[in-house]
Amino acid sequence: MSKPADLIQGTLDLLILKTLALGPNHGWAIGKRIQQMSGEVLQVTQGSLYPALHRLEQQGWVASEWSTTEAGREVKSYALTRAGKKQLARELESWERLSAAIGLIVREA
Amino acid sequence: MPRWIDVLRRRVIALVRGRDLDRDLDRELRSHINQQIDEGMAAGLAPDEARLAAVRAFGPVSAIEEACRDTRRVTPVHNVIRDVRYAGRTLLRHPVLLIMAASSIGLGVGANLTIFSLANELLLSPPTAVEAERLVYIRTGNGSHVSYPGWRGLDESRALAGIAGYSVEEGVNWRGTDVSVTIMPLVVTANFFDVVGVPMALGRGFTAQEAAAGRDPRLVVLSDRFWRQQLGGDPGAVGRPLVFNGDGYTVIGVLAAGVRSLPGYGLAPDVYLPISRRLAPKLDDARTPAVQLIGRLHDGQGMDAGRAALSTVVQRIADGSGDQEFRTITVFAPVGGISQVKEFQAVGAFFLVLLVVTGLVLAIACANVAGLLLARGTTRRRELALRVALGASRSRLVQQLLTEGFVLALAGTLAGLAVTAAVALVLPRVSLPLPIPLDVRLAFDHRLVGLAFGLVLLSTMLCSLMPALNATRPAVVSALKQEEPRYVHRRLTLRGLLVTGQVAVTALLLVVTVVFLRNLTMTRSLDPGFDTEQIVVAQLTFVEGRQGPLDAPTVERIVERVRAVPGVMSAAFAEGVPLTLFSGARVGTAVRLDGAEAPVRAEYHANRVGLGYFAAMGIPRLRGRDFQASDRAGAPLVAIVNQAFAERYFPGRDPLGLRLQWEERAASPSAEIVGVVADSKYRTLGEGREAAIYTPYLQQRDVERMVHVLAGTAVPPGALAAGIRDVILQTDDSVAVTVQPMSSALAFAFLPSRIGAVLFGIMGLLGTLLAMVGLYGVMSFGVARRTTEIGIRMALGASSRAVLAMVLKETAVLVGVGLAMGLGLAALLAQPLAAFVVADLSPGDPLHFAGTALLIVLVSLAASWSPARRAIRIEPAAALRSD
């Protein structure tokens, strides 16, 4: 199980943005989705998820509003803003570069 | 919406609606937990177990909330707001501290702001004009004024967009409904308003066409003050006829209120008249100085380009006229700002010294507050230590204490602004003993606001940084126990530093104050070289072309009548009266001395006087004879010189019988020196020995429009004023007459030193008073704090004499070091100060230093003596318990 400290901060931002690119979602579900999509490898704790969400919101990359789930729970739902979409593209690109570079090194060794 | 606006919007929301966001955050996290519970129950857990599991899985709620809050990045701002609130509350609980500190800083800041705004208004602010940044003061080698043809040549060259001329004239007669009064006009060239562009309240300024000198223009623009005071603010003033010097003029406009005039220094001419041959009979003479120059640069033309363009023009004109002085441009300076014009620089230096002094006053005020805060810091040690123990960092505590200082400084500065505003309100109503109209308004502009803000920050740092650092010195345990480091004797304490610094600044200030106060008394006792007690001065301004010719016999008839007034011993005509604004001309010209081949350049004061002038003035005749009735038009020219002239230009020779010939009047016969009189003062009391030439006005073809009749009296001169005025008006009721005793006519001469003495005196006394109070407070607090130590020493057998000696010795060291520093600085300042005081007074006089030292030693003694006495009288047991 991955501890939050193992997740590079920028990576968590990327994961959240990527998750929200599939559609607006609330904190609990974002955490769940990251966990599922990573094949239960990545587990994001609340201690890093919520500060990350709030930071992204402060920077204008996501916007939030209250909504109600099918189960009737009030949740705060986050959605990508236009600036957030651009930011996601940028972060994806730099992630590709980084992982390619790391991949080269790792395979070389 | 651009992202940065979005970000900014969020920050602002976070700042002002933080509580709503906190509630929202709480709700969000709760919702998360609820969903976790839902999931647990869906997985088959009992509700309680599901809740427990969810909460456990979630982690530390408050830590997560804190982390989320931190993402808003407004914590530092919140801290500041909290600090300000806390500081406000604390200070309100200690109103005495608040009032003392705020009034102390307020006085210091008020003094600074007032002096600065005065300097700002008089020296830095440009005259009121359209696009004043394109205006330049221009002077040629001829001096401040150029001739009318010279001006015309410059303006017509179009080297600049326009060049106008103006001249402050001595006075014209305005004939009101029942009396004639002398008012001060600004005589201007026709294009003045076109070039300068002055805002008008009513009507407009005259144009170059309608006011051309050749058309004998009879138009006038009034100042706001003249319009209000003399015409009662008549809304229909435009078009109204007014009589100046017996000629009818038509009002064409009224200047807006608060217009700063071109001559500067707050001078506000009553009326603006277009120059004409009527006002300046020698208008077309290329050698008669007529106007000062103000130019407007072409749009886009720089200073250097303008100066270069004008340089070629003056050279061309000089080549044409042969006037070599006209060749060069000596001044080409933007209006406003620190000017290159010499007179402005002298006043600027005066204000600079004054600002240094007021700065010192503020420094002392801040030192006082620092002393107060330092004392409070020691009594607050427990509170601060408790906060450190509860986890406050030292930087947060210092920030908190600085905030307190900031609030004090802010309160003080607001009080200071109120002081300045009060001065600004009072100032226009103060009438100085000046024969010229002044209008000084203090404006609250960006410079003043900037300075006020700077002073807030400066005084915050000065008064609270040291006490804050001192009070938060990490010594938690002993502070919690409210202990002083009792038996530690530290050589260099903060308080010691404060005392030393304060003594130094006080010493400096006291020396400056003493110098200026002595200057005032010495100026009063300076001998002007003539009688000032038993003389009446009548100033007459004639209207040309009325009641027959204005010539010497007419004036002589007036003098005869004055001489016949009972109580008048002697009466004499004089064109100028020394030490008044109309002291005659100071001439620098080429003179051929007694037939010498080459003329020399002589500088002297020139005055044309009548029979009996020296007797009436009480100026002793040293050699030769006085003027006599036979020295009249047609008779050989004669002159009388003063001793300084004789010694300077005829060294080692007997001047009697020698001849003077003025180079510019080469055609006229030379004048014979028939007498030598004693030196006296001519323009200022502080001047050195100046040369002077007197000539008989009876040999002069025309008489100036403004002249004086002097009457030596046997009775107090005030009693005769009305009688003399009446007999003059009987001869010619169109003349404007001002009659006053010589002593009040001389008020003008005393004005600069009096203003200097009053300003420096107020600052010095204010600063000294503040410093003495502060010194007393800091020193007595210092001694009182050692009560316990003194108790122990007494208990261990120290004699009260020994304890007193110990306390006094320490005081002596602190005060001695401070005195040495302060007096050393004052000695450095003595040289520049000498420029502002009369020649006989040396600012470096040891007397000033000794007196200052004595006063400070006395105050320090008193300040440490009484607490020390109190300390040695207490029972040792009680002293040990006290703190």
Tell me what the structure shows:
The complex is a heterodimer of chains A (109) and B (883). With 109 residues, chain A is an alpha+beta fold. Chain A has helices at 9-21, 27-37, 46-58, 82-108; strands at residues 25-26, 62-68, 74-80. In chain A, helix 1 (9-21) packs across helix 2 (27-37) and helix 1 (9-21) crosses helix 4 (82-108). The relative contact order of chain A is 0.16. By secondary structure, chain B is an alpha+beta fold. Chain B has five domains: 3-73, no CATH class; 76-125 and 342-485, no CATH class; 132-336, no CATH class; 493-528 and 750-883, no CATH class; 535-745, no CATH class. Chain B is 51% helix and 16% strand. Chain B is built from 26 helices and 24 strands. In chain B, the strands form four sheets. In chain B, strands 1, 2, 3, 6, 7, 8, 9, 10, 11, 12 and 13 form an eleven-stranded mixed β-sheet that branches. Chain B has a six-stranded mixed beta barrel with strand order 16-17-22-19-21-20. The longest helix of chain B has 39 residues, at 747-785. The two termini of chain B are 64 Å apart. The relative contact order of chain B is 0.10. The chains are: A alpha+beta (109), B alpha+beta (883). Chains A and B meet through helix 2, helix 3 and strand 3 of A and helix 1, helix 2 and helix 4 of B.
